[in-house]
Amino acid sequence: MKLKKLVLTGAAGRLGSYLREPLSKMCDELVSTDIADDIGNLYDGERYVKADLAKFDEIEPLVEGADMVVHFGAIVDEVPFEEMLGPNFIGSYNIWEAGHRHGVRRVVYASSIHAVGMYPKTEFIGTDVPHRPDTFYGLAKCFTEDLGRMYWEKRQMESVHLRILSAAQVTNPRALGSWLSYDDLVRLVRVAIDTPVVGFTIAYGVSANDRAPVDNALASFLGYRPQDNAEQFAEQILAEAPQADPTDIGTMCHGGPFASIPLGQSAVGSMGIVDDRKKT
């Protein structure tokens, strides 16, 4: 069934750039939003509105009449808590509260492995493990997952929280297990929208990697069946990588570099992420 209206936050970001076109085909109207001045050429049925997630009066009008919100807007690195508070904590509250006031049925949220990033990689973790954040960034994901659960249990507003592992090019050994291809990202978001009933659901955002360190069994009802596998990159990545240090927290924990950095300090800069956002 084609939806009447979808809202996409974080539309100017790297992942948002890959979601805009498929989302525009799932609805009559796609409202894309971010804090950038513009996002380039728009797809059929798409319009762009510049808005700050931390400002309720800018967010509330966007969700009026929307069936669902795909909430990918946030600071996507570790920063001091004071900088994280507005977009990542208050921004999530604004999305859920505005959605509740306007009868939004469901929010599909870009959560993260960093909500449970301090678990050892030797533990094959499911979607039901207790929170164990590795950073203020991960803490914001925990907050929003709990917010979503509360709005479901108290206000019957559905949400699917996608704990994305590594949605970027495979450039290091960790990514051999954590990779989420852009095609699988689209597949995951699509089923999170299309599944008739979801209640409150957590699902890991990861491709069909031989080395995937997480278990999506409890979210199997979504019908997410990833098609890509990072093992195709293993021979080259492992041949070029330095020997791993088993005493390094960043090597041993699910959160990778986020697990080893001091709170409030950037981790993304050391991860070699390629800015290959889709151009319109």
Automatic annotation (TrEMBL):
InterPro entries per UniProt: Epimerase_deHydtase, NAD(P)-bd_dom_sf
Transmembrane segments: none
Listed EC numbers: 1.1.1.203
Top-level division of the source organism's lineage: Bacteria
First-level EC class: oxidoreductase
Keywords of this entry: NAD, Oxidoreductase
Gene3D superfamilies linked to this entry: NAD(P)-binding Rossmann-like Domain
Family per similarity comment: Belongs to the NAD(P)-dependent epimerase/dehydratase family.
Molecular function terms, GO-annotated: uronate dehydrogenase activity
Domain NAD-dependent epimerase/dehydratase: from-to ranges: 7-164
Protein name: Uronate dehydrogenase
Keyword Oxidoreductase part of the UniProt annotation: yes
